[in-house]
Design brief:
Number of helices: 7
Shape: elongated
Largest sheet: none
Strand content: under 5%
Radius of gyration: 18 Å
Structural class: mainly alpha
Length: 190
């Protein structure tokens, strides 16, 4: 059953990856770069400060730092525990896939990019939804685009991305609950 799932995952990867073309490569390389999200984070930081003040912003920033560290470290544990090679490391796929990324790590299950972007989207979307009701949906779209970029570039299978997004979503929700508790406990809201 696992072998069949991995076979379908590979087929879906090849389909999605081969939808790309050179005119879009630069865009997807930009999307996947961690620094490309800085404008989004600056806007979110402003909204957090505006709605929570300095103390609340500090609690939220500590929560985000811990959350991103957790998603990255747990993704690394899975990568080296499962040891599923990235598609760009599989010889049989190299001739039939598009490899666009600048580098290709060794193992890919699950995607830390997908996990951390989804965790941030869920956490910050929930944190700010009281004042900005459409923001959670915009952040989820941003996280999904970031996840897809990993498939487009040839460095992750769809299952790597979906698992990363699911893990990130759960992590973001748990850290949101933790942050809410911290704000009540230490009365950090405006």
């Amino acid at each position: 059953m696992i072998e069949e799932l991995l076979k379908y995952d590979t087929e879906l990867f090849l389909f999605l990856n081969n939808l790309g073309n050179t005119s879009w490569d630069g865009f997807w390389l930009f999307v996947t770069a961690k620094w490309s999200s800085i404008p989004i984070y600056i806007m979110l930081l402003y909204l957090i400060y505006k709605n929570y003040g300095w103390k609340g912003m500090l609690v939220i920033l500590v929560s985000v730092a811990l959350m991103i560290t957790a998603t990255d470290q747990i993704a690394s544990l899975f990568k080296y525990g499962v040891k599923r090679p990235r598609p760009c490391q599989v010889e049989e796929l190299k001739e039939v896939m598009r490899y666009v990324a600048d580098s290709c790590g060794r193992y890919g299950f699950f995607s830390a990019h997908a996990a951390s972007s989804m965790a941030a989207a869920v956490f910050l979307g929930l944190t700010l939804q009281k004042w900005h009701k459409y923001l959670p949906f915009l952040l989820l779209v941003w996280a999904a685009i970031t996840g897809y970029s990993r498939i487009y570039l040839g460095v992750h299978y769809p299952l790597d991305v979906i698992t990363g997004m699911a893990f990130g979503g759960i992590t973001g929700w748990l850290f949101y609950l933790l942050q809410k508790w911290g704000q009540k406990r230490f009365k950090t809201s405006k």
